Amino acid sequence: MNQNDKGQQNGPGGANDERFAEDENEKTLTNRQGHPIRNNQNIRTVGNRGPSTLENYEFLEKISHFDRERIPERVVHARGAGAFGYFETYGKVGDEPVEKYTRAKVFSEAGKKTPVLVRFSTVIHGIGSPETARDPRGFAVKFYTEDGNWDLVGNNLKVFFIRDAVKFPDLVHAFKPDPVKNIQDGERIFDFISNTPEAMHMITFLFSPWGIPANYRQMQGSGVNTYRWVNKDGEAVLVKYHWEPLSQGMKNLTQEEANKIQAENFSHATQDLYEAIEEGNYPEWELQVQIMEEGEHPELDFDPLDDTKLWPEDQFPKLKVGKMVLDKNPENYHNDIEQAAFGTGVLVDGLDFSDDKMLQGRTFSYSDTQRYRVGANYLQLPVNAPRKHIATNQEGGQMSYRSDKPEGVSPHINYEPSTLNGLHETDQRGEYYKPYVEGYLTRESIDRKNDFKQAGETYRAFEDWEREDLINNLVNTLKPCDPRIQQKMVDMFTECDEDYGRRVAEGIKMGMAAGAGSMNMESSEEIMPTKGKLPKHGGSPMGSTGAADAVDEAEEKGHDVDPY
Ligand code: HEM
Fold it and tell me: Which parts of the sequence belong to the Catalase core domain (predicted)?
């Protein structure tokens, strides 16, 4: 809409005119041309048995819009749910004024509220897949700040599988269903993982009960990658973000518990979020950050930019920054949640990237896919548009329905600089942070890989029941795998922790009654032998104990019926 023409928008025939035709009221069904629908039960036909005719505009509009109801689903994180709410800043980071570290306005002035949209998701399977999957959960937050949008695109787990963006399509292909069978296959997953040692920390979380959070409300969130905060003097620190659930607490499921829930409801997490908000039981999270001085930190045994690592809390305590409350359900799932577009590049003044190469890869990928998935003008959609002044010289593109020219600016000037009445840039606020970068252009992995140490620490930090579930889930998924993959995995578990490797090896050996594999280990009573039989053609979904049994049961338990 051209804001200069505001006067012409109102009144009869203006763009804002919502008058009724003579026999209409607000509940009268119309088509998108404004024609009242007088018969929504029958198409136009020659006689009441047909054939039908081609000029049925109402029918054609209705059915052809229906044919286009879906947009491409997200290539990852397709299954999701979301809600609106607000973020309230404490004005401090821990006990210090937040301005010491960042000039981002979203954090200043204790008690200030910023509207947010949150979308939770699972990663691997399609849009209608069960929400009990063993999978990381997405935790993406859009802050509609006074300085424009800030997206914090995170997961529930605080580490990730890989540290280089070029490996992301391979990681996702290995976890997605087999391109021939269209079934997720643990053998393909562990084929990739057994050649990707940096994934061991994430795998240790993923196959434990932390891989199936009870629902979206009762889980943590994390930015995972390292970002920067910049203050008014242009000084920067490294930060990691964490969302910690408040009164609703935190809960995970064992595989067995998840199986039962999945049998009754494959949308339990969406339902849980929607109902909690409808009932006024608003979920709340506290935003906490870990701060590290800028620099490479050679004194640490890990690289601060490595997203497969946790920053030890005893050295880098979590400092409280504010809290988020979700108190409003979407008005329309497709408009508000399916079309929502988050990206790691969407930052505001005072928040910055780090040199984390994964983060830079992500930043290209998000808006690239959104231009394809939602369209070139995805930022014009109300859910994605910032809730503030917008003025650009961008023009056209599919489905453009507004020109970003505010009142008082010439609609003819869509370029800059101009002496005429066009848009112009504004002054820099505060000092730029200017990192000095120097080095050989290279294709190398980082020096301090340390792939196994933190995975071992995480294994030892689990409670007994968590370790037991972890071992069982790994054994169940590794059991049908090629013995070379089993051996590589056991070797890596052993590098993480001797007990970890031994228990997985023993479990695989015990599960070998059916004859697959050739691990040379003594069996042990400590491990529960897995119940299910091996799938006939190899492979089964992650963590599954009874994938092959389920296939047979469907045939065995099915009731014979006669054709009609
Ligand atoms: C190089 C690594 C990565 C790449 C290339 C990548 C790429 C993508 C892409 C293409 C999407 C679909 C976006 C859309 O269609 O709107 C997506 C979604 C998502 N990614 Fe990543 N991703 C990477 C790593 C990560 C990591 C480490 C996290 C967690 C911190 C993460 C969290 C998410 C979330 C939460 C979503 C869903 C956003 C939503 O709800 O719309 N991704 N990612």
Answer: 30-424
